[in-house]
# Entry
Amino acid sequence: ALSGNTPLSFAAETGSVAVAKALIKKGANPNSQSGTGFAPLLSAAFAGHLLMVTFLLEAGAKQDLRDNLGYDAFLWAVKGGHKDVADYFLAHGASVKDQNTGGWSVLNVAAESGNDALVESLLKAGAELEHRSNGGATSLIMAAYRGRESTVKLLLAKGAKVDSKDVNGWTALAMASQTNNPGVVSALIEKGADVE
# Structure
């Protein structure tokens, strides 16, 4: 569990709005953070509890609060694969340019997780297809490394550069080959990936 280790974070993680209301009524801080920076709103977003997210925001939780890895609630919603929660944050001021401390954009996180619906939604909202993390990895490289075949095909169909390299010179094809993902390898080769 990614809990912030407070009763309110536990309630947020499980989606118990009734418990959260009782705790906040007695003074629980919706912005309390654990030693790793995790907070109730981050727990609720990662767990996909939209009602809890909206309740915590109405109770004063800060949408831009980040944990020690630089993840805010929007990034955690994307990492958790919760399109409804991610769409809510987008509609309420979150940016598709959001990044964690490793330079991972929301699109990088969605692609690495293999969530095609979120990838599609983020691209429609203006996410940068060729954004590079601090290590130079694009969303295509991240999806290929994780063996996310459908996501790789989606990114390629949207125009992702098949032979982009990270800071170590690794391409999506190299990553897919290293991690034994034949379906991804085939998809990349079909799109003209350099096999050398």
